[in-house]
Design a protein that fits this description.
By secondary structure, the chain is of the alpha+beta class. The chain is 36% helix and 16% strand. It folds into 2 domains: 2-66; 84-161, Winged helix-like DNA-binding domain superfamily/Winged helix DNA-binding domain (Arc Repressor Mutant, subunit A). The longest helix is centred in the middle third of the chain and has 15 residues, at 52-66. The chain is globular, with a radius of gyration of 15 Å. The N and C termini lie far apart (37 Å).
Length: 165
C-alpha cells in the first residue's frame, strides 16, 4: 500500500491506496505529523500492490474539491474487509448530491433498516474515505450537525464550501 501526505490551503491531508483503489483519506490537520500518525494506523490488509496511480488521482481530485473547483469526486475505492452494513451505508451516502444534506434516519430508511439511525452514525464515523463517501452531508434529524470524524469545524467548512450552510 502506498501513502501520500500533502499540504492544501485547508491544512495537511493524507491518502492511502492499494492497486485496487483508495483505502483511506485523512482530512485536513494542522501538522504533517498528525496526518502521518493517522495514516500509519490504516490497515494494509487490502489488495496490496502499487497504488501510485490512485494516489496521484486522489491528490488532484481532493485539491480540486477543497478549492471549490469540482463538485464530485469519483475514484476507485478499496474497502476490502469492511463490514457489509457499513458498505451499504456508504453506498447510500454516495447518492447524496453536492450541496444537500440528509439525516441519519433517512439513510437508515434507504438501507431498509429504519430504526438503525445510530448504527448509521457509527458507519459514518468509521468511514475511511471521507469526501469520496460524503459522510459530512449527513446530519441529525433535528437539523443539528451531529458528529464528524474529521471534527465539527471541518464538517462546517465542507458544508459551507458546498453552500449548504
Amino acid at each position: 500500500m502506498n501513502r501520500n501526505v500533502f499540504r492544501t490551503k485547508w491544512g495537511w491531508v493524507g491518502v492511502a491506496a492499494s492497486s485496487r483503489g483508495v483505502r483511506a483519506i485523512v482530512l485536513p490537520k494542522q501538522t504533517r505529523r498528525a496526518v502521518e500518525r493517522v495514516l500509519s494506523s490504516v490497515s494494509s490488509n487490502g489488495t496490496g500492490g502499487n497504488g501510485t496511480i490512485h494516489l496521484k488521482a486522489a491528490r488532484a481530485a481532493l485539491e480540486a474539491y477543497l478549492n471549490g473547483k469540482v463538485r464530485h469526486v469519483n475514484l476507485p475505492l478499496d474497502l476490502e474487509g469492511q463490514p457489509r452494513f457499513r458498505r451499504k451505508v456508504w453506498e447510500v451516502l454516495q447518492t447524496i448530491p453536492y450541496g444537500r444534506v440528509r439525516s441519519y434516519g433517512w439513510v437508515a430508511r434507504k438501507i431498509g433498516k429504519p430504526k438503525a439511525a445510530r448504527a448509521v452514525g457509527g458507519a459514518c464515523g468509521a468511514n475511511p474515505v471521507p469526501l469520496l463517501v460524503p459522510c459530512h452531508r449527513v446530519i441529525a434529524g433535528d437539523g443539528s450537525l451531529g458528529g464528524f470524524s474529521g471534527g465539527l469545524g471541518v464538517k462546517k467548512r465542507l458544508l459551507k464550501l458546498e453552500g449548504t450552510i
